[in-house]
Amino acid sequence: MFRAPALIAALFAALLGFLVASGRESERARGTGRGPDRAGARTERCVSCHVKPEEDPGGSHSRAALGCASCHLGNPLAFGKERAHGGLEREPGALSTAAMTCGREGCHPREAARVASSLMTRASGIVSVDRFAFGEIPSPDSNETVADALAAARPTPAGLHLRKLCAGCHLGARRANRDDAIHGNGSGCAACHVARLTKVDPSRAHPPIDAHVPNDRCFGCHSRSGRISLTYEGLAEVEPHQIGGGSRPCAAVKLADGRPACRVAPDVHQTAGMSCIDCHLHTELMGDGMARTHEEEQVEVTCEACHGPVRVGGEVPWSDVKDAISLEIRERENRREDFLRKGKREGSAPDAPTRLGSRGTPILNLLRNSSSSSSSSSSSFVWTLIRKLDGVVLPVKQTPRDANHARKGHERLSCSSCHTAWAPRCDTCHTTFDAARTQWDFAAGKPTAGAWMERSEGFSWGPPLLGVRSDGRIVPAAPGMILDIDATAVDGGKTSRRLLAPMEPHATGKKARTCESCHRAPAAPDFEVGTRTGFRGLNAAEKRRVAAARLEPR
Amino acid sequence: MGGSALTEAPPGGARSPSGDLGRLAFGFLAVSALSGLALVPFFSPAHALESLERLHDGMPWGFFLRALHAYSSFGLLVTTVAHLVQVLARRTERQLSAGAWWRSVLLFPLTFLALLSGFVLRGDAAAAEALPVWSRIAETVPFLGPELQRLLLGVIPGDVGAISLHHAGTFTFLLWLITAEHGRRLVPDARSLVLAGLVSAALAGAVPLTLGPPPGASPSGAAQILLGPWYLLGLQGALVDLPVPSAWLAPLLLVLLLGFVRGADGRARRLLLVLAGAWVAAWVGFTARILLLAR
Prior knowledge:
The structure holds 2 protein chains of 2 kinds.
Chain A: H1 4-30, E1 38-39, E2 42-43, H2 46-49, H3 63-66, H4 69-72, H5 81-84, H6 109-116, H7 119-122, H8 124-133, H9 146-151, H10 157-166, H11 189-193, H12 215-222, H13 228-233, E3 235-237, E4 252-254, E5 260-263, H14 268-271, H15 276-279, H16 282-285, H17 295-298, H18 303-307, E6 315-317, H19 324-336, H20 339-342, E7 353-355, E8 366-368, H21 370-375, E9 383-386, E10 393-396, H22 415-419, E11 423-425, E12 429-441, E13 446-455, E14 460-462, E15 465-468, E16 474-478, E17 482-486, E18 494-502, H23 515-519, E19 529-530, H24 540-548
Parallel strand pairs in A: 12-17, 18-19
Antiparallel strand pairs in A: 1-2, 3-5, 4-5, 6-7, 8-9, 9-10, 11-14, 12-13, 15-16, 16-18, 17-18
Chain B: H1 3-7, H2 21-39, H3 48-57, H4 62-90, H5 98-105, H6 107-120, H7 125-139, H8 145-153, H9 161-183, H10 190-206, H11 233-241, H12 246-261, H13 266-294
Helix pairs in contact in B: 2-4, 2-9, 2-10, 3-4, 4-6, 4-10, 5-9, 6-9, 7-8, 11-13, 12-13
């Protein structure tokens, strides 16, 4: 073994090994970045290659502070591209990895946990109403999440309907498997907090990350189904054949995803430049840790919270606020002299008043106008709202105590019953399953056999119907699922449903709808049942009362 | 160990008591120790993976040096096992005194410990997973468990400072000491050193070693089973079903079987060897099992 031939053979083998190793050595030297390798006092070799200014998101998530791997994972210690990109997360914020990215310890673990339980992630309302409409569950109150529905091994007709049509809009959906109208940049946290790449700025490789979420990010999902983002912007979706040929005039526009729409009056808050985040509270958007089924259970802001008259206990001094997150945000904003400072408020004294959502969460950007309060001149602009995106201060008109707002017999009406100018409707929806076609499947993440086809004779819009909630309150409603379902191709039956859904159309007008619009309206059709437990159209007694107050034609 | 026996080349070829594999094993040990010495300045126990990444891809020829160390260590294990088989086949175990034989048998667990500690020092995902397993195994040793755990793995969970000390110090020193006693020489002869060095260099150049992904950073989810080092896959496979103490009981059993071979004759020797063979077969079987499970 130790004789010369063996040693010579080993020598040749070693030389060969050196030769191969020299090739690797030159490759290694070429593939190593030359830039800095530190970020935020940590080794972060990603930045040795990713040196372009446009690769920096800036702000509190800047490359210098966080590097890349804090959000994108991968291997920040590696020198070569292949190893560095092993395990890379291309969509930081995606809920499947959020615990390691945005939700990692030291960053936003509390928020990641809240979002996981939020309705925008769970989409339980969509699932349960869909199953209810298909007749698969007796009431629309299931806690089944969209993730549960997508995971089912043998989907029911409603499950298949969800997979093919509805399950593309929830925070758990990855970008490539999402069906939103704008195709935002990321998913999960990034669906809201990462700016969209637009054609305006194609050179920006890394979009900024921020908490100031403009409406376009909400638009992606909320311009579907109830279409509140469309309504808010003053857009009524129509079918292509309604453009130009319809009976009513239509200033047509084409949405980013190709859907045609007509220009209608926008919401008065939109006209005032307000964003979704100016009204909707952190507990609604991020969740509050409670798993809820329906949107109206998650939402806690009300018209009255800003415009009054506030409910008992709806206005308290800051010292009485219990919501820890709001207190934390307020303290931080006070320290930073951020947007809240721009408002004329009464300082940060603990006895300064604040107004609360229905579960006690303060409306942070609604502040009492100090000049008005000091004058105590009963100005109607006691409260001001600061637009979160640009800091502009808006007066918040308080509901006057006049005859219009104290009309006998109208005590149960919500503000939006009268102040909603219009709501979208689709009274002729027809849904069939076509086994011969293929359609995207959000469970498989690719097209699969079978397609749910939706047809209608056209959308319409107009003053909303009114319905009665389980607590007796009268609110706007829409024929939510007046539809014929033909699921015979997937072992389901033929179903015709005439359901009534409560909705906040987000088409608030300064002027209330006229008395005639209710009292001279044609008799509303009867609805089978509401899409919420206890929700219904007017009953016979209520109809009689409305009829009794029916206005004579002028 | 006489002075002349420690410095003169041993008689080679047929005159060697059990062939040349023992000599080669010592050569591999020397190459491993020397290359390990060269690695020491670049390794930081506090930043194990980072320092290895830097060594591997951030330094000229660092990957080669690390591979040289690893392959010479693998060479040590392979040639030591082959040497044992040679000794048992030639029935030359009685050329050693009973004490030296028992100590020589201890070279096996020591070599495994040295290799395992080197594996853990990588600091990557697989190493990070191996550390608590090793800790749990040490913990189950009766009476000594917690102390053994602290002695081998240190007192701070996840810290590899104590392990690096044992890897570069305790285990290497004991291996060298027992090997030197066994071979009756303090250093390997030049030819075995050169041959071991050339073979290790050939492998280090031709078959590159890689580092694993960092701990807990794979969004796609790492494999269900992170495989340990190749020489311990049998143990990993066994631990899928067998209780944790089997991880030290089984090696102890093998050491006892091999240890008693020297004093046994005839049927008793055959029985011990059959049992040792069955042990090795089970090891191979468990290795195959874990590989199948990991697929």
